[in-house]
Design brief:
Helix content: 40-55%
Structural class: alpha/beta
Radius of gyration: 19 Å
Low-confidence stretches: none
Strand order of the largest sheet: 1-11-8-7-5-6
Strand content: 15-25%
Distance between the termini: 43 Å
Number of strands: 11
Largest sheet: 6 strands, parallel
Amino acid sequence: MTIIDGKQIAKEIREELREAAEKAGITPGLCVILVGDDPASAVYVRNKARGCKDAGFYSRTLRLPAETTKEELLGIIAELNNDKEIHGILVQLPLPKHLDEAEILSAIDPDKDVDGFHVRNAGALMLGRPAPVACTPQGCIELLKRANVPLTGANAVVVGRSNIVGKPMALLLLQENCTVTVCHSRTKNLKEICREADILVAAIGKPRFITGDMIKPGAAVIDVGINRLDDGTLAGDVDYEAACEKAGWITPVPGGVGPMTIAMLLKNTFEAACRG
């Protein structure tokens, strides 16, 4: 059984991006906007800034008060859309409740939408056209490829149908010639469907929801979930110890998918810088 080390793979990608940017003679620039003082979001923002530094990118973080108005935030985004130093704009989610996430995200220039959440980019993914792709599912595909998991013809099951992970994950697996099933809270016979998966992606947001008896022997198990338990420890959506007895490949939590999300954010920023 192979443990897929997302932390190490993400480090390799940052080094590759640093070399590619130096060779191209460009300094990719990323601006992250944090509205409010959500502790988890603050940690993510710090990690993104650290990732930029490691890759030799220019990084800017804008910390705005929770009471920032829609007009103020849209004005800041409009300025960044025209800022030639900034190639990627990321608005950290969740936003305070008085701000409409869809409206805010749609204000970002699609070419600078390094999160891949703009409706134009989501549509491009649906049609198989080049565009920034949501970072977490893109990172999952990269993990599978670098771990040499066979994709063509594989039976892939995605548990979860969110716009951020589940849906784009299914589309990316289709692009890799997998046969894809998307499961969710209303799915019947979930356990039986999961048992047929050569590739099982858990993105449902429930700790240790995927148990050992739901995994096909030798399957590749990608655990997108990161759940903080009552004792303060982290757990994925997969029962890791039980899964290790069945899986052929597995991602740990933490240290699996998480670091790859930031690595793909940097990749999207680099590609945006190359487009100019």
